[in-house]
Specification:
Keywords: Carotenoid biosynthesis, Membrane, Oxidoreductase, Transmembrane, Transmembrane helix. GO terms for molecular function: beta-carotene 3-hydroxylase activity; iron ion binding. The chain has six helices and no strands. It is mostly helical. The protein has one domain. Helix 3 runs antiparallel to helix 4. The longest helix is centred in the middle third of the chain and has 25 residues.
């Protein structure tokens, strides 16, 4: 799912849907931003896939819907609450933990330089631009 999210982030959100995503790149984040429409869209698609999987006995559709839902929940906690410190404001807690601290630093490169690091939950060495202070193991 991370690779699909990277593709969508780079070519859709930073492409023809930039007019929705651009408020996410502002310094100030409110309770809601236009970018949250992507989450609503993906949640609707996931719900459709789950219901389709259950009612039509389609295990592939069910699996895709459950996978999208799990990824969406992870995205909400890690990307919104930790990286961007929205809602529960978990960034200060996360900065005490190596993986989350590094994820925040790598994601900050994307927001500060406006390019690269298209992922949300994983650091992929050799693909992501790794800032100083992040272990290069």
């Amino acid at each position: 799912m991370e690779f699909i999210a990277r593709f969508v982030h780079k070519y859709v959100m930073h492409g023809f849907m930039w007019f929705i995503h651009k408020d996410h790149h502002r310094d100030q984040h409110g309770t809601f931003e236009r970018n949250d429409l992507f989450g609503a869209l993906f949640a609707t698609l996931a719900a459709y896939l789950i219901f389709n999987g259950i009612f039509n006995l389609n295990p592939i559709s069910l699996g895709l819907g459950i996978g999208m839902t799990c990824y969406g929940i992870s995205y909400f906690f890690v990307h919104d609450m930790i990286i961007h410190d929205r809602h529960l404001h978990l960034r200060s807690w996360a900065m005490k933990h190596k993986y989350f601290r590094e994820l925040v630093m790598v994601h900050d490169v994307h927001h500060n330089k406006g390019r690269g690091n298209w992922g949300f939950l994983l650091i992929i060495r050799g693909l992501d631009e790794i800032p100083e202070g992040v272990d290069r193991v």
